[in-house]
Amino acid sequence: MRPAANRRRPADAGSIDRHGPPGEAGGPASAAVAPGRVAAVADTLWAALALVLVVEGLMPFIAPRAWREAFRRLTEMSDGQLRFIGLASMTLGAVALLVVTHA
Length: 103
Description:
This protein has helices at 35-62, 64-76, 79-101. It is mainly alpha-helical. Among the domains are: 33-62; 63-103. The longest helix is centred in the middle third of the chain and has 28 residues, at 35-62. The N and C termini lie far apart (57 Å). The mean pLDDT is 80.
C-alpha cells in the first residue's frame, strides 16, 4: 500500500486531479494563472498606483497656487467637458502603456 501522501483520490471524490494530462481538467494547460504571476501582477498594480499618487502630488507641492486655479477652472467645466478630458486622458494613458510594453 502506498503512503497516504502519494495516494490518488478517486475521480468521484469531488476534487480535480491536479496531475492529469495537459489540456484536461486540472492538467498543466488548464491553469489560468500561476500564483507567482498573480503576485507579480499585484505588485505591479500597487507600484503603478503609488506612482499615480506621486505624480498627482507634484503639482500641489511645486505650484500650489497654479494647482488651485486649475482645479477651480475644472469645477466650472460642464459634465461633457470633464468627460472629454477623462476620455482623452484614458486614451493617452492606454496608448502610452501599449508603446511602453511593446517597445
